[in-house]
Specification:
TIM Barrel, two-stranded parallel ribbon, 8 strands
């Protein structure tokens, strides 16, 4: 199976199978399965249409999250970047232009990630769409901890409603889940309903909300 098809699967399944996780064996897909905790993450921001509301909602529920940010958005909206930092959320690199690794030469992809890091300054990286060429992955893991996910809510999908997004959280969340939402125009209308529902449900189920520490590899899990 080639990487484009793998990319397709990453985009359309909520919980990646074990064989998909093995493609990037040093990446973090799930945290400690023995700990009743989840890790909330957001991709693609910051943007004025969604980031302030996300920050306000997280603060309301006393939740810290990890924001995998697009460098060009950080450049355009530095005040939102500073807001995320000031509230104690974790920062992640999501490339400068949200580029797919398969669409460009590896040197271009690595240069783009490095350009983003000059603004974001983090040791965490998440590839847009969840896939990279092998060389890109091997180079990036030397400088970053690559964070994937245990549950992608698909809040970006035009085919899903807010109820569907919430149901994905209810159905697939488990101990150590890295849960991916999106800080984007495609997601925000659904998240205004689904995110509070999800946070309340997770809290009621007894989950602790955590962010990645500096030594996250000691808690990583592939299953």
């Amino acid at each position: 199976m080639d990487f484009p098809l793998i990319g397709f699967y990453f985009m359309f399944i909520e919980q990646p199978s074990k064989w998909l996780r093995w493609l990037y064996p040093s990446a973090i897909w799930r945290m400690n399965p023995k700990e009743k905790a989840v890790y909330i993450t957001f991709d693609d921001g910051p943007i004025p249409e969604s980031t302030p509301w996300l920050i306000e909602t997280l603060e309301k529920y006393n939740v810290k999250a990890t924001f995998f940010m697009v460098g060009d958005n950080v450049r355009k909206y530095p005040e939102l970047f500073e807001l995320i930092k000031s509230k104690g959320h974790r920062l992640g690199n999501h490339t400068f232009n949200h580029i797919g690794g398969l669409k460009v030469w590896s040197w271009q992809y690595l240069w783009n990630a490095n350009k983003a890091d000059k603004l974001i300054h983090t040791n965490l990286f998440r590839p847009p769409h969840g896939w990279m060429k092998p060389l890109q992955y091997l180079r990036l893991r030397k400088h970053y901890t690559v964070i994937m996910w245990d549950l992608v809510t698909r809040d970006y999908s035009r085919l899903l409603t807010a109820d569907d997004v919430f149901e994905n959280v209810r159905k697939y969340a488990r101990n150590g889940s890295i849960i991916t939402f999106h800080d984007s125009l495609k997601s925000i209308d659904k998240l205004k309903t689904a995110l509070p529902q999800s946070l309340e449900w997770l809290r009621d189920q007894g989950y602790e909300f955590k962010i990645f520490d500096e030594d996250i590899h000691r808690n990583r899990h592939l299953k």
